[in-house]
């Protein structure tokens, strides 16, 4: 099951897992329910999670893999976002992971190959300008991921996370559309990643699929960076 599975990294993950033969349920606010396995759900609303996850379990016949990917962005320094936005971002980016995982924990405990992968961000480890709220939420996701890994390792549930750099997603496209000079803003986003380009959703999906697979059977409590070298290397004079 993949949350936020209708676009960006989530959609790429759903496509990759299905291409490898997995039966996948996608939970997303924009899903209409017209396609089998594509289930409408607002992970920011606790009352939406219970019926959506129940429907996913019915569709899948159980859950082996949970990808907590749904998230929203925020721009600004610590003074820029009002209290309502802080609450909304933390609810969608952090609390939803706890609520969705809690709803599926019984199913995961019954699986012989249970794996949870949470989508975090490089901003959990690297200070980036104008991302105070977003960074706070993703720092919490990283801490939550490690705590979950410790809590459930004895139950055979592996918990890991991916930390993408700036990825070519719809949110970044909207960010660039709102910039005074979209070309200059795009160049700045590319330039802060040592590889000189944005991360692709497919690259992050490949990392998620690896962490969720039996090939990563001895991997838990790990944050896998897919960030173009942003967190680990410095280039230039």
TrEMBL record:
Stored SUPFAM superfamilies: NAD(P)-binding Rossmann-fold domains (SSF51735)
Keywords tagged on the record: Oxidoreductase
Single Gene Ontology MF annotation: oxidoreductase activity
UniProt keyword Oxidoreductase, yes or no: yes
Pfam family, one: adh_short_C2
Keyword presence, Oxidoreductase: yes
PROSITE patterns: ADH_SHORT (PS00061)
Superkingdom per UniProt: Bacteria
Family: Belongs to the short-chain dehydrogenases/reductases (SDR) family.
Stored PANTHER family: DIHYDROANTICAPSIN 7-DEHYDROGENASE (PTHR43477)
Record's protein name: Oxidoreductase
